[in-house]
Design a protein that fits this description.
- It is built from 7 helices and 2 strands; from the N terminus they run αββαααααα.
- By secondary structure, it is mostly helical.
- The protein has 2 domains: 52 residues, no CATH class; 83 residues.
- A two-stranded antiparallel sheet has the order 1-2.
- Helix 3 crosses helix 4.
- The relative contact order is 0.10.
Length: 149
């Protein structure tokens, strides 16, 4: 089985790429000359697989927090909250969590969202607009939003 995996990996990687076994069934690949979008989808599209396994890597989380695309989406989301919920930050937090998760948020989740916005403004000096955008970025990174059941 290991030999089959090695042959399959060799066929998928470039000569300059590195592949190493971390232990057991875990492997890591260093792949050169690809952008952030390609980094998460290296499977050969001509092959079928019955189930695509779930993988979350630290670089994915960093890309989701720092990538240009998701930061733009967070700004669009923040603007939508103001349009639809008005200036009441509590209503904005409630709406954001509802839109992202598809169910009414708990009071504890709303409180955590409000606390985050408060800390960003009070301790980090973020403007209300920037704090709202960072809150939206956090919402777009919630496991409940990113992964489907």
């Amino acid at each position: 089985m290991l030999q089959l995996f090695a042959e399959t990996a060799r066929a998928q990687l470039q000569d300059c790429d590195l592949l190493g076994r971390l232990g057991g069934e875990e492997f890591a690949a260093v792949v050169y000359n690809i952008d952030g979008e390609e980094a998460f989808d290296l499977a050969e599209p001509d092959r079928t697989t019955p189930v695509r396994f779930s993988s979350t890597q630290p670089t994915q989380a960093l890309h989701m927090l720092n990538g240009e695309f998701l930061n733009k989406q967070a700004q669009i989301f923040a603007d939508r909250l103001v349009r639809e919920a008005g200036k009441d930050i509590s209503k904005q937090v409630r709406l954001a969590l509802y839109l992202a998760t598809g169910h009414p948020p708990s009071e504890a989740d709303i409180r955590r969202g409000l606390d985050l916005i408060d800390v960003l403004q009070r301790e980090d000096g973020a403007s209300p607009e920037l704090a709202r955008r960072y809150f939206c970025l956090m919402v777009l990174n919630l496991n409940e939003f990113v992964y489907l059941d």
